[in-house]
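Archive transcription. Copying these from loose printouts into the bound notebook so they stop getting lost. Printout 1 of 2:
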Amino acid sequence: MKVCLLADATCIHTKRIAEGLTRRGHFVRVVSHKTDYIRGVTVDKFAVPGFSLRYPARWHGRWAMHMHRLMRTHDVVHMNFLNDWGLTPEIAAAGCLVVSPWGSDIVKPPDLDAYPDGLPELRRALLHMASAVVVYGRPFMDVVARFGEMDASEFMSVPLGVDAAAFTLVGEEQRRPLTVGFFKGFKAVYGPNVWIEALPRVLAAVPAARFDMVGKGPMLDACRARVRELGVEAAVNWVPYQPHEAVPDMLGSWALSVMPSFSEAFGVAALECAAMRTPVVASRVCGFLETVRDGETGLLVPPGDPTALADAVVRLLGDDDLRMRLGATGRAIVEAEYDWPVCVDRLLDSYDVALSRSETRLAGV
């Protein structure tokens, strides 16, 4: 099968999807506005072709011809994130289009006042153009259906999953028993400010607790400043952004992880923690309803509530047996339901369904 991914080549999820398909023997091309190396995959920077015998039209015409060619020369074109690639219903109908919303493309981030005029309508149109809508997580399907004014039963759910072989805890002895990690990134949607407001309450109950704050983002400087204002800087360790291959060891060193997000389409980071037997305290929002099982693999708290977040963290820090039980259950669930090779199988199954629908449409049935 020849697959074209319209996606961000620098994104770890794009890399994992592309490499997973390639390992199954499929040809994969990633067309991206930002390029990066992906092993075994053809990565092309998106650009409108210059005037030539193949593309003799004006600029907009050449753009349309280029997208039409991508549709015709690949068995499946899979758009990850609902960006404006210049597709029209006529271009989409030239091949098999699969689309996957990622979250912020249909759920407005908290730091964004409003989407630009016409953008929601464009993204809604992309959903309707597709031969299949693939959603990375079951709870998010209803959100997509409401946004697109569509029937969620027509969608297919494919979890992003975890490479359980790579995310394996070597031994509990590497853990720091009172260390809590945050690694979602310093963006408003991930609630780093909520977690920082919770720190004094955690320290009042567990004075020896320590906090790893990992990553980068537009809120980092403000978060650092607020930590100083609260007088808890001695308990906070600021860690630079870590490459994905370093994440397993990092997660395996923590007693637990916090994810106080305001919105999550899926929450694969919670599954990565589960694979490492690291319980999660997360917001009770869409994606985490699937990837964090309250009382089984972690604890869910109301979003935007530092007190509830702190109390859940204190509960886990004070109960070694509970942490170990949640961690063991999380690992078992990842192995049974979310191991990456199984997820690739499900993605390929969704492509088969999309191809069948596309062929039926072209036949006029």
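Printout 2 of 2:
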Amino acid sequence: MEKNKRDSFGTRWGFILACIGSAVGMGNIWMFPTRVSRFGGGSFLIWYFLFVVLVGFTGVIEEMSFGRASRSGPVDAFGKACRSRGFEKLGEAVGMIPVLGSLAMAIGYTVVMGWIFKYTAGVFLGSTLAADSVDEFSASFGSMASSFGNNGWQLSAAAAAFAILAFGVGRGIEKVNKVLMPVFFFLFLGLGIYILFQPGAAQGYRYIFRIDRELLFSPEVIIYAMGQAFFSLSVAGNGTLIYGSYLGDDEDIPASARNVAIFDTLAAVLAAFVIIPAMATVGAQLDQGGPGLMFIFLPNLFRGMAGGTVIAAVFFVAVTFAGITSLINLYEAPIATVQEKCHLDRRKACAVVGVAGVATSICIQGIVSGWMDVVSIYICPLGAGIASVMFFWVLGKDFAQKETARGRQKPLGAWFYPLGKYVFSGMCFLVLIVGAIMGGIG
């Protein structure tokens, strides 16, 4: 595949931290602890870890390698993959699926980041923990999450993201992730240590590690563990692929994929170690996930804890850092595509995508949950599946082995190609089908 001069990451760890930042997001914080709690603690974790290994050592490696080989976003990458078969234009058209999926997810995420910005600021201004009951917290969140209910903070979140993106890959995305990701882990680790010494927390830890043999072999547990791992590692044919396109040929991609999988899993486990024991300190059952957990039940919990304001401040600042790094990754694929196809410079491409994305995000505030469901259930696994088919099936074994071996002292074992071609590709479409039937598993 042809190589074009373009922006790039300056250091190996800058790239790894950017990929970790793209993967660490709300799924780690507001969904993973709930799944662990709901599906029997260790019974869920065993399957989750297995699927993380599978996705990390097939899908993540594939998308990074595909991006580096093409030196482009999904549209041109898919087009180049199909060129030798005479279907370049069809490949480019298909490549728009993950790009539009990334933009649609970014639009929904912008709404969520507006909520996070408001709650983070509200901790310091006194409004976030001001309610006196769960019902009042719920009413406050419902008002904010209604149509046009949070315009100012949402615009602030978008402005922060596009200010970073306008500086490019090395001077913007990389530098921000080098700061925000280490601080995120430091803050969550501090919260975990604090919760460890709270009365009743031990019950939460015991629950996390217990193994229920009946649940261990439950198809429902296995399916949701698969979905959690799949979506947590952000394989969708867009964000990981575009970050890979900024890599040099000396980068050891399998080693980077391993580090991304490890730190993304660590972030999820840290969140579980904070939230599940915290709920146990007040004898509460963690059965509420999603936005309700973060914006209703956790603020109510923090309000009643000793030092609750400080705990809430640390928590929401950490969540802000995790969210903003994910948001810039989601907008990067559409921005890169506009640059490639419209031949615009970086800042003009940011302006085009920013205006379209922010305007749409303002309009969908009241329906953002349904919006995000459609994108995550249908478009994300479809994009991942198409990218996998392009890499493993269209470009073939020789190409896959050559590109994954680039930058390594020895190539990957013979296991990689069949595992990626048959198991991971099949898994992408299984996630799509099962997600559609069950109303989402991510």
